Amino acid sequence: MKQTFWAAAAVVASSALVVLVAGHGAVVNPPPRNAVDKDLPPWNGKVPDPAPSVESKTGWCPVPDKSGAVSGQNGQSCFWFSNGCAIGCPSCDGSSRGPIPNSKDPFWKRKFNVCNNTRTVATICDPALRTVNTQAECGADDDWYYYSPWRAPGSAPVFDSCGMAGGHRPPDGGFGGIYVNTTHAQLGDKGSEVLPAAPSGTVWRRGDVVEVSWTIEANHGGGYQYRLAPSAAPLTEETFQKIPLPFVGQQRLRWGGPKGTTIAFNGTYVSTGTVPEGSTWVVNPIPRNDFAQTGKGFAPHCNTTGRLSCQGMEDGSTAVPDLEIVDNVLIPEGLEPGEYVLGWRWDCEESNQIWQSCSDVTVV
Question: Which residues, 6 or more positions from 103, have their beta carbon under 8 angstroms from its beta carbon?
């Protein structure tokens, strides 16, 4: 069956068009601060079907609500990120999406690091830990994504640990680098500075294993990590890196909310060459498999056709809005009780972009 899938996918991809959108995603559970616009139209109304492209400048990030219905309850949470970030660089440049191997523009059709630091060494080389272009030899000229954030998880810089609205400073940019300005937030705002605490009623006990989930609006591979920070502390990478959360048990894909359809499988984890040192990250389990642009990916964990699809999702218009990626994480027994912020960081591989969400939780 897998051989049939790969053969068919390669044929379909041979005629694919260049896809230029940026990855977009956000935490669903616990509800993130980044959903600050959820009370405003259009996000407090009916979700368009199909959902708009992330390039449409409408700011939609559809997610399943507790009943399983597709909802706008996440506001524009999937538009909080850092653009133009690469390993070995001191800062993000806000504009460099990263290589596009099948682009007709020579500026994008090349392997490059946004800060031209070619001495940087990737720590993720094993094809089993990579998500796109896995057939390329690590570091070779055709290893297009060698300098992307996922190739040394947690080491690339960010603009803000709760994300930046639109991924960069004004004006609006390409590759999904937009934000619909509202009374709550505007393009270029830093999440840790403008997003107010948003008590979710989530209470976790020390030593417990708890469920967390996120959704993809536009997929760019890579992987992610959850971590905690005291809510009264500065919400910086330095603070979050002190409490990375271990993953426990199997990963799951869930369609239609908590009472919907779920499949479980063994996730792919990495704890070597990560930041903080020895911390565990997990591979994004949704493969792109758009061979013409990103080369070989990996076999999906589900049926590839019908409503319960779990591959591709290169843009909001082709995403599966009621699909969540679900994990269990361990809350450390030694934590002081109190108010915390759950941080989520998604280091992309197919783009020089990092998505982040911040959710309020209580630890007892």
Answer: 18, 109
How many residues are listed for the chain in this entry?
364
Are 184 and 205 spatial neighbours (Cβ–Cβ below 8 Å)?
Answer: no
What is the spatial distance between Cα 236 and Cα 154, in angstroms, rounded to a whole number?
Answer: 13
Give which of 49, 97, 111, 4 is closest to 319, Cα–Cα: 49
d(CA 264, CA 283): 15
Half-sphere exposure of 49 (CA within 13 A, CB side): 7
The string of pLDDT tens digits covering residues 274-315 is 999 999 999 999 999 888 888 899 999 997 677 788 988 887
- From CA 156, how far away is CA 119, in angstroms rounded? 15
- CB-based contact 127:299 (threshold 8 Å): no
Question: Cis link prior to 42 (omega < 30° from 0)?
Answer: yes
DSSP states of 53-119 as a string? PGGGSS----EE-TTS-EE-TTTTGGGEEEES--TT-SS--SS-----TT-SSTTTSS---TT--TT
Please write the tens of the pLDDT for every residue from 31-81: 999 999 999 999 999 999 888 888 888 999 999 999 999 999 999 999 999
